[in-house]
Amino acid sequence: MRRPRRAGAGCGRRLRPLLLLLPFAALLSVATFSLHSPGGIGLGLVVPAAVTVATSTDTDTASLHHHRLGDAVSRIDIRALNATPPLHAAAVRAKLNELKKMWFLNRVAGQRNRGSMDWPYPFVEDELFVLTLSTGLEGYHVQVDGRHVTSFPYRVGYSIEDAAILSVNGDVDIQSIVAGSLPMAHPRNAQRKLELLTELKAPPLPEGPIELFIGILSAGSHFTERMAVRRSWMSSVRNSSSAMARFFVALNGRKKVNEDLKKEANFFGDIVIVPFADSYDLVVLKTVAICEYATRVVSTKYIMKCDDDTFVRLDSVMADVRKIPYGKSFYLGNINYYHRPLREGKWAVSFEEWPREAYPPYANGPGYIVSSDIANFVVSEMEKGRLNLFKMEDVSMGMWVGQFVDTVKAVDYIHSLRFCQFGCVDDYLTAHYQSPGQMACLWDKLAQGRPQCCNAR
């Protein structure tokens, strides 16, 4: 769509010749407005105009965000969230199919008869419009320039405090998104909300030794994932005198992301910011940082590494490591043997990067545990400049354990399928690729004594 020439005009007028101004592919698309939360998608709204912007807010505050990305304006007035798909989606697609036929007749067959069609959305090409989403007695209502265009019912069990991301996707420029008229909490409720956040803060560093240190790899922009971890399985870590967990996050290319990360780290006290730019090839340095923190900052028997989309069943993990004889060097996880590197595709590894035909035995990266003497060895070799680094951090750990075996002492390789590489199995130790909603679901089931998977994302 071309940029608007002036604001406020054209409400309800018929769309001017759209067909000659857009590429064919654009006629097949519709815009999608969606609100996402740790519990899943909050709202899905389909309209035949589009926007290219995504804004995110934290899960505990309702904020006002302005994004100047074009010359059109869209205002989304959010008073409540989470709804089923709108009633007009099928009708919009039917109209778009009709537009495709008209485009073909105009451009290919030379026909100039545009025909007659009812357009349910009062968007006008080259004109500004205001889209408002509001709540009523029976559900959510959408207006464009004051004209009602669609409604859809509520979904039970959702509140605005759970919203994490507002995203609008498509092909039309947008000047701003405004979240207004949000519900105001009574001061007593606001204080309670602050108290709940305070409960998520990490306790002070332990004065004595602990049994298990958990290092969680995360990215600067993964605030929602970290909040899901804090509100679920990390609660058991905070309440344990035998375990401790920290997020390990590298620097982002955007200054604002780093500023927000610093504020988050100062508030929750559970983030270790490592001083290099985040990239896939440098993830291995986060694993080295985990080993260093676990051996130099705290005193621990065992070190676990996982990702921020990994759900850790702490009580069962602790029970498993306690079965291992004290003083035994071990490497525990879902271990791959004779795994060959991929030489083609997205995750290809060149012969220059890895000349051998197979990797050493290594545990899958979503969750594994090593004894503290192995972590000490990793840090020592790094300081001496003798540690071999490979871009795949889990393979690197397998390589370091192999070097430890060759130069120090034997290691017990303990394989367990309960450290899930893909998804989840009942009676898991770790579950991988878990969305924030699944994290909450798994935590609720654990509270009921049911270590079962949650399939819905």
UniProtKB/TrEMBL annotation:
Pathway, per record: Protein modification; protein glycosylation
EC numbers for this chain: 2.4.1.-
PANTHER family for the chain: BETA-1,3-N-ACETYLGLUCOSAMINYLTRANSFERASE, HYDROXYPROLINE O-GALACTOSYLTRANSFERASE GALT4
InterPro entries linked: ConA-like_dom_sf, Galectin_CRD, Glyco_trans_31
Stated name of the protein: Hexosyltransferase
Family as reported in the entry's similarity comment: Belongs to the glycosyltransferase 31 family.
Primary localisation category: Golgi
One Gene Ontology cellular component annotation held by this UniProt entry: Golgi membrane
Coiled coil: none
Membrane-protein topology: Single-pass type II membrane protein
EC supergroup of this enzyme: transferase
Organism name: Oryza punctata
Domain Galectin: 1-180
